[in-house]
Amino acid sequence: MLTLPSSVKIFIYSQPTDMRSGFNKLSMLTESFMQKDPFSGHLFVFFSKTGDKCKILFWDRTGFIIWYKQLQEGTFEKLPQDKNKPSIEVDIAKLTWILEGIDLFKARRRKRYERPEKI
To answer: Are strands 43-47 and 53-59 parallel, antiparallel or unpaired?
Structure first.
């Protein structure tokens, strides 16, 4: 399982992405379409149209990092797409489940305390 500080948020781009995209294109998608700051230190996740490839963009204070995963068999979980919502925020557990191939819709999470967001 990935371990990240609780201050790091994870945003999944809701549209399929061309996996030939590099640092510049992914950071442009993050800024222009997701309306997020690519230099924020958050994770920005992109999936291919076929659902078998994933790229994660991350800024680590000195430069961009891209993690790239290509499945040899199968596809990643298809999340509901909302044309009005350019990204979906998930926690590290859900991202790990997606990357490991666990069906999010059949998995059930027990109730836990969640601190209300400040407005």
So the answer is: antiparallel
In a domain, 119, yes or no: no
Which positions ≥6 away from 53 have C-beta within 8 Å?
19, 47, 68, 69, 70, 71
Residue 53: closest CA among 21, 27, 89, 88 = 21
For residue 46, count other CB atoms closer than 10 A to its CB.
Answer: 25
Range of the domain at 90: 10-100
Dig out the tokens for 71 from the structure. 């499945």
| Closest by Cα among 12, 11, 15, 31 to 23 | 31
The domain tally of the chain equals 1
Taking a C-beta distance cutoff of 8 angstroms, is the pair 98, 76 a contact?
A: yes
pLDDT the model gives residue 55? 97
Q: Does residue 3 lie within any of the structural domains?
A: no
Give this prediction's pTM.
0.84
Q: Is residue 108 part of a domain?
A: no
Considering the domain boundaries, does residue 30 fall inside one?
Answer: yes
Average pLDDT in the 110-117 region? 78
